[in-house]
Amino acid sequence: MAAEIIDGKAIAQAVRDEVRDKVTAMRAKTGKAPGLAVVLVGERKDSQTYVRSKKKACEEAGIESFGTDLPEDATEEEVLAVVAAYNADPNVHGILVQLPMPKHINEERVLGAIDYEKDVDGFHPLNIGRLSQRGREPLFVPCTPRGCIELLERTGIPIAGKEAVVVGRSNVVGTPAALLLQRRDATVTIVHSRTPNPEEICRRADIVIAACGQMEMVKGSWLKPGCAVIDVGINAKDDPSKKRGYRLVGDVEYDSAAEVAGHITPVPGGVGPMTIAILLQNTLEGAERAFGP
Ligand SMILES: Nc1nc(=O)c2c([nH]1)NC[C@@H]1CN(c3ccc(C(=O)N[C@@H](CCC(=O)O)C(=O)O)cc3)C=[N+]21
């Protein structure tokens, strides 16, 4: 039995359409629009591509986009000055500092300098702290983990009372994804590079979120029949039959996993498009709070 494919592109488009309609209504009611500022430091090709698609997505949703590109050798003080200017700008409701930043810049210091009310990435210590505590609500939740949850919920996959395993413990995906699943009453385990028996633990899971950054690590033999698999990985795999010489694959070995799972996200076209859709949604929510009821 082959798994049902979770169409991340289509679900992301539905989210983007909802955001666009709400932005249209906001413009009509208040004469104002949400604004997103994206700060890019350095010349990484992949980061430039992501930033470009974020700006394009903003335009399509009617969100104003602002951007500052700094050179690879920009100082931490220069980055902090850009962040401070966007903090003070009333037309900006979301600030995203593209990661990773060059090594000489203290990421924690920069992320902590973003006004937590404009922290659309959800990486500010106050938002992470609230996410990790019961009964507290962060203003923003990190885009990729929130996108994973939206994919499950909009596909009708139950979370409460289920066993969920997150593969990977990064600050940007694995850890916040585990916290979000726990907040929805799943029983959550994180497996990571020092877990001796990840396969065995994964086989218990009704929901697997793979975010370990290791190409095709999670195999069909790791999965419980009928489980839901959300693949966060994006890896370039050599493929001479493609004109670019590679194709994108996830952290899940798709073909073997699709034979066992009940639902699975493809790469590309799964979690990636959701990350951008949720960024727009977070920016809209920031603007709604800024403009008041
Ligand atoms: N502060 C910060 N926030 C981020 O949210 C952030 C970041 N830094 N640094 C880099 C990662 C990566 N990321 C992606 C966004 C969209 C796709 C995406 O749309 N992918 C498509 C297309 C893939 C392709 O063709 O290249 C897909 O998977 O179908 C992927 C990855 C956001 N990130």
TrEMBL record:
<dbReference type="InterPro" id="IPR020631">
    <property type="entry name" value="THF_DH/CycHdrlase_NAD-bd_dom"/>
</dbReference>
<dbReference type="InterPro" id="IPR020867">
    <property type="entry name" value="THF_DH/CycHdrlase_CS"/>
</dbReference>
<comment type="similarity">
    <text>Belongs to the tetrahydrofolate dehydrogenase/cyclohydrolase family.</text>
</comment>
<comment type="pathway">
    <text>One-carbon metabolism; tetrahydrofolate interconversion.</text>
</comment>
<dbReference type="GO" id="GO:0005829">
    <property type="term" value="C:cytosol"/>
</dbReference>
<dbReference type="InterPro" id="IPR046346">
    <property type="entry name" value="Aminoacid_DH-like_N_sf"/>
</dbReference>
<feature type="domain" description="Tetrahydrofolate dehydrogenase/cyclohydrolase catalytic">
    <location>
        <begin position="6"/>
        <end position="121"/>
    </location>
</feature>
<dbReference type="InterPro" id="IPR000672">
    <property type="entry name" value="THF_DH/CycHdrlase"/>
</dbReference>
<keyword id="KW-0554">One-carbon metabolism</keyword>
<dbReference type="InterPro" id="IPR036291">
    <property type="entry name" value="NAD(P)-bd_dom_sf"/>
</dbReference>
<dbReference type="Pfam" id="PF02882">
    <property type="entry name" value="THF_DHG_CYH_C"/>
</dbReference>
<protein>
    <submittedName>
        <fullName>Uncharacterized protein</fullName>
    </submittedName>
</protein>
<keyword id="KW-0560">Oxidoreductase</keyword>
<dbReference type="InterPro" id="IPR020630">
    <property type="entry name" value="THF_DH/CycHdrlase_cat_dom"/>
</dbReference>
<keyword id="KW-0521">NADP</keyword>
<dbReference type="Pfam" id="PF00763">
    <property type="entry name" value="THF_DHG_CYH"/>
</dbReference>
<dbReference type="GO" id="GO:0035999">
    <property type="term" value="P:tetrahydrofolate interconversion"/>
</dbReference>
<feature type="domain" description="Tetrahydrofolate dehydrogenase/cyclohydrolase NAD(P)-binding">
    <location>
        <begin position="142"/>
        <end position="289"/>
    </location>
</feature>
<comment type="function">
    <text>Catalyzes the oxidation of 5,10-methylenetetrahydrofolate to 5,10-methenyltetrahydrofolate and then the hydrolysis of 5,10-methenyltetrahydrofolate to 10-formyltetrahydrofolate.</text>
</comment>
<keyword id="KW-0511">Multifunctional enzyme</keyword>
<keyword id="KW-0378">Hydrolase</keyword>
<comment type="subunit">
    <text>Homodimer.</text>
</comment>
<dbReference type="GO" id="GO:0004477">
    <property type="term" value="F:methenyltetrahydrofolate cyclohydrolase activity"/>
</dbReference>
<dbReference type="GO" id="GO:0004488">
    <property type="term" value="F:methylenetetrahydrofolate dehydrogenase (NADP+) activity"/>
</dbReference>
